[in-house]
């Protein structure tokens, strides 16, 4: 085993559990001096001690892995790479900063986000653009909420347990949940539900609730699974509004972001109610994460199943840690949640070699890809377009592709790994976090030069790859 030093992570674990070195040593049946040496990086972590730690504290299998902090490392890289004066800082130095003072690393990332927002605000004012200023001292509300779930690895245990309890206490069952939830709303909460037909070319809101009349209206165009989701969202506000408010109160956000977060938490509850944790996880494991079979079994859409799979990180009952993303034809990412270390840059778009972009060429068909990031980490990706229906032939369509990925270490648990060369690096597709931060200098698909890295311009040579870095050896320029 390669020597692995985990001092900072071990101290973080001990602080989170409120343990002294003596108490931790007693739990692990180790000496206090040994724990002290581990925390000060004087001794490497051994496999037996790693197994003891995982078993005693029910840790995520990647808690002590170096790639667990890949997202934070990527964010730090963006902070420094945009400034030419700091571009010489190496990844090794950033890793050391992140491991030894993670709180400072997070602070730097948050300050950088605020600086970027403030800069955008200043540029808009300087340009004399009309209308309200869109830049803020922080991110946009949707980015705030996205980061909230992202930082929590897309798992909110309070709401997950509450939804599963509500499902069991009311003796709900899989199959016809829209009818069961309609009856529950009427009998327990005096809410009547009606279905509304919209004009063919002017679809209205999916769900409208009138608190005074205790009346909920759903659009007729929704499928049974979509109706169940909307009914469950309304139940979240009616039954666990206090829990949602308590979670929201712990976060520092602008008012608009907090309002959006409440909706996001209600939607999380809804997903957890129509796909109860234990039942769904057990089915996923049994069916080897076959999304289409799970979709049929639980009467929900492809996207709903993929999103729920990205939340299965309950302590003691963890599923495969997935990265979930939804993108449009232009590559704009509208949903991004993760239980993994995978990270895409916030600047410069996503990688054009990523399989999710290929899904639009074969609507309704699942595409797979073994992809390798610049740091050597490999992922199994699957992608497919959504099956969202449209009101009519002349109506504007909503086309999205859904991507679901996991670390290659978990690939054999998925039916989609069948027949793929999981361990052949030569066949893996080299992708990156985004052109502006990607280190692959010889990528023919590069759309932008790497931030903080000067480019080489030679009028006597027409290179095969765009934006050749100036610091690349002459022999490697093509």
From TrEMBL:
Highest taxon above the source species: Bacteria
Protein keywords: DNA-binding, Transcription, Transcription regulation
Ranges of residues in domain HTH cro/C1-type: 10-64
Database matches in Gene3D superfamilies: lambda repressor-like DNA-binding domains
Similarity comment: Belongs to the short-chain fatty acyl-CoA assimilation regulator (ScfR) family.
PANTHER family cross-referenced by the UniProt entry: HTH-TYPE TRANSCRIPTIONAL REGULATOR (PTHR46797), HTH-TYPE TRANSCRIPTIONAL REGULATOR SUTR (PTHR46797:SF23)
Name of the protein in question: HTH cro/C1-type domain-containing protein
